[in-house]
Design brief:
Six copies of one chain form a homohexamer. Chain A is of the alpha/beta class and 242 residues long. Chain A has nine helices and ten strands. In chain A, α8 links the parallel β8 and β9. In chain A, 67% of the residues are buried. β10 of chain A pairs antiparallel with β3 of chain B. Chains A, B, C, D, E, F: GO terms for molecular function: amino-acid racemase activity; hydantoin racemase activity.
């Protein structure tokens, strides 16, 4: 089974870190392919950049020329998942949904700890539309930007632990979701420090994507995610212009 | 005052029709500029096309080289409004929100009548995120595609009236919102046929945009719609690559 | 176009202040008529007084003997708007709804800052029924009574700014609504102090009422706001006894 | 113990019928006093009439010159209960809340069957504000006006049974609430015909009011229903002008 | 009239205290029978113990061999009420619902003060399913275990008052519900200390059960609480194995 | 890895069918152990039976004397999952949650098709508490009892397909969840007939349980699902009496 894990940022080192985490939990026989978009921001932290990434992720997946069995969109709280679901016949798993859905099996309420405060409303909105917000105790910002996470992982751990502890004590969270693809690999340290289960959306998404493939399930095509109707698409140099 | 009204489709005739409706209700001294995106689908009817339009609308607005006072995104239920709000300092009004918000001053519940069934969930999701869904009685599809509306306006009226009547009698709607920018201009006929107020999102958006400008109000920049942080944006030929 | 702006309090000086603000933002050709109820409390700060004002506002409007194009009920969180909508064929705009609806075009969440704590639940309830509460971050009380606002505007500004800043920092509001008709005219000072958009319900209502009239839209009469059925009304000295 | 049961309509015969039903279920030692408002519509079927009744009920209760232990407002879905709660120190029970609250002890979901369709939104709104709407399966209109109920009780039973049966079979209601004070006394017939428990708000309210008195409980005065502040009330001939 | 009041804990002294409170408010002619389950935990403070109590309460009621008119399940936030409703034809009142339902007649919002923090989610979940959570301001834990309440009532009062005051000042509660059957009898002291109405679920349940019996109302049998279908039940020594 | 799959019914043949389906999708190296409760109803179709099953499932798991890595509770919409989560340190997956959670990755809305109408409210309530109800389009009953499913699988398929088609066409479901453990194995036929993805909760639960184990995640013990406190448990013959 081959699973594409697509970064939303154009920073190649983040793609590699994500793919490495994904491969580490993948079942024997699962091949993880990390993809970096051909265009967009080096880090995605807001709506404009996220919309650009939405299209860039679709562009990157559609220009991948080998067969694959599932796609993981590895950005937390980003736009675009529904577009991929329309374009593809294989399952699409967004790490936002994967993290929340997994956390809900582990406790009565979960919190997300993310990067900057400005991304909090995006995450909340994505969780609301996914129908996974009812048991979300809070979405909290560590205050670190995406690229800062990568540059100083230890500082990242400290900042995330601080918010995670507040989420548990004040917001009554029982599980923590890491709210950024770039936090992949930090879960174990944070679990040890906080004493609660910590879910990394990337690894959770790998197991969910594998499960859907094994169960022979993929996106329903009867309504919302039906294949796009034939259209005249002008002015776009990439794959979408058919 | 100059207001940009941006079509989400790349069909120029729809832009002209929308701009004409907008100008017809504009206050004396308001100049309406209709803009057509430089790339994207001739008609937007689903998530992929809508995400592409989101970026195309931002690209079109950012490449407009004259001063302007407000922007109207003239697609019903489409992605992208939040990105525009980040990029601009002038007010941004989406016709989805404009229509619903106006309808709520006119009755206890409203329904939207749109084009194809596949776009219904997009509209519902946009209204939910905008916080304007509580008094939405239903979103109904006329079954006509965007381009069919233009080709046969009389057939469009019939199909919309049929759904509007069901919305009133079965869903208990008291007001009807036209759920497509391409329906601009049909409101009066439908009102006469159904006996309930009919809101065209485009004209409603013009008065709202004018009002915000007159009141000296624009998008809050303290959190969700703060100006994007400086980023390295690669691979994008247009205005966003700074 | 003539718009009636009806105070809910029987304090004439508040009516004048409100009408002055309203006229200041009105379009050329719009005549604002400030009306004071013939009976009721000098300031409305609770349910009993608000119910009395509801009837007093209807009585005042029905006894106005000139033609008019729209009515604004200038009390924040008060009862009665639905009754006016039944009695009249012209648009009715409550400043509670006008403020919230306008704020939602400007940010992801808004807070209301009002007078006394006891009025907070009234405002929350009105916003819930109007379907405009989903993106309300909080309703906060400045602690000042209605008449204190008038007597000491500078103290009012300080008290409002204090709560507005807490609304932004703690409740994550991005826009502030002034939660009392008597606060009309303070918006600019508060905006300068807080750095976020500040919406005055009275001026917002003027632009909305004008817009509805310009668009040819008025209250739907098919169900909730249908004209009252002919009834025998006894014991009431005013206009309602027909 | 003396309980005032206040009709919202000015039709004396309805007051008598309500008071008779109330007395029939009252505990030994409970005296029911039926009161008719001094002004207002002979039947209340909409917002204007309901707001007028709200004030008329307060006026009637405040002008009652004997001691009493509790007040029942005997209109289904009407305005005004919160005003009474402010003005009085004894418990206030609205039959809307009494009916719904009682029904929730009897089944998983309940429906209300009321008079005219135009009153449905009022009832829904009152139940929402009272926090008793979550398990409301539907509010259905029998199509009969208040005064028609009185004139032809058998026709009323038929019309209510028809809607009650639809509520059970289609809306999945398990209990029926009679949605009009004027339906008092019809519950047993409707129960026999439908096979589900039928709650009459008036009799339910009597037992709740008695219970609150026996338990020594009354309205909280710390916030929403605090006694009105001293005010100058002008132009009102009745008891409120102090 | 005979009402069974069933403790959820197997501690006999708690049963006696509950029954004593219940009898104290019962109407003349009402006989209260306190029952202790034949099996289960001495105090119920979590899901496992609560599920065991659910069955133990049903077992105890079904093995009671005298006629009775209503049953009160005297545990706050415990499982099992729906099972009793299926098994019996007489009304079943859970003190969780009785307390919340009564509190809602007394103020705009109520809070529950319970024992240990771990029971808070159970109470919240029970109130949500009962449709009585909308106006719940908070559920707060006193930090005292069930058996500690009994051993040191004065300490219990202090701990409950502390949380009740926070509920009023911070969460905007206007009424307090005692969130444990073992708190029966403490209401008056807490009311005096906090100045807000305090509802004891046990005594509230007595008046509700009496009211339902007097009104001739009992559980609807048309759907959710229909009598169990005939089944082969194996391996159970008690009454359920038929 | 060893996973216990516990039937809620005491019918051994259902256990075998469930275990066989579970084993069929299990990863290499996963051993499925099917367990039948030692007591309870042969088929669970209501609250009383479900509460009994809740305890019976806990009893059965606690009396299993070999090590295991996860537990699946194989009843759709049944009580008890939270108790297991308290008692165990390994992950617990309820097929209700597993089915819904998986369906949400496949479409915008899902419906559940279950057995008898009386079980519909149980399923809805479980989904609400699990926070997975927002995108549930409907829960529909096939009208077949649990044991009828087993006796006549072809009739079961027909009845389920009929409701599934209504769910898609009327309720706008895009995915179907099989709402009974006894439906395991029918998914492929129903998918072929309806053209939408069909999720069997049992097989979905197997992949989720495996995933949680592989990710090293288990139930949070900080609050709701903390290990039960030491208690004196009387009168219970099984494992719980410690």
């Amino acid at each position: 089974m081959r699973i594409l894990v697509v970064n939303v940022n154009t920073t190649e080192s983040i793609t590699q870190a994500i793919a490495q985490q994904a491969q580490a939990v993948a079942a024997p026989g699962t091949e993880i392919i990390g993809l970096t978009p051909h265009f967009g921001a080096d880090s995605v932290e807001g709506n404009f950049e996220s919309y650009l990434a939405a299209i860039a992720v679709m562009d990157r997946v559609m220009s991948y020329d080998q067969p694959f069995d599932a796609v993981i969109q590895a950005g937390y709280g980003e736009h675009g998942r529904e577009g991929l679901q329309e374009l593809l016949n294989v399952p699409v798993v967004d790490i936002t949904d994967a993290g929340a859905s997994t956390a809900m099996f582990l406790g009565h309420a979960y919190s997300v700890v993310t990067t900057l405060d400005r991304t909090v409303p995006l995450i909340e909105d994505r969780l609301k539309l996914s129908g996974l917000f009812d048991r979300c105790a809070s979405v909290r910002a560590s205050g670190l930007a995406v690229l800062e996470l990568e540059q100083d992982p230890q500082r990242a751990v400290e900042a995330i632990v601080q918010q995670a502890e507040l989420a548990v004590s004040q917001d009554k969270a029982e599980v923590i979701c890491l709210g950024c693809g770039g936090m992949a690999g930090l879960d174990e340290q944070i679990r040890q420090r906080t004493g609660v289960p910590v879910v990394d959306g990337v690894t959770a998404a790998v197991t969910i994507a594998e499960s859907l493939v094994r169960l022979g399930l993929s996106t329903s095509k009867v309504r919302t995610y039906a294949t796009p109707r034939p259209k005249t698409i002008i002015g776009w140099p990439g794959r979408f212009g058919r």
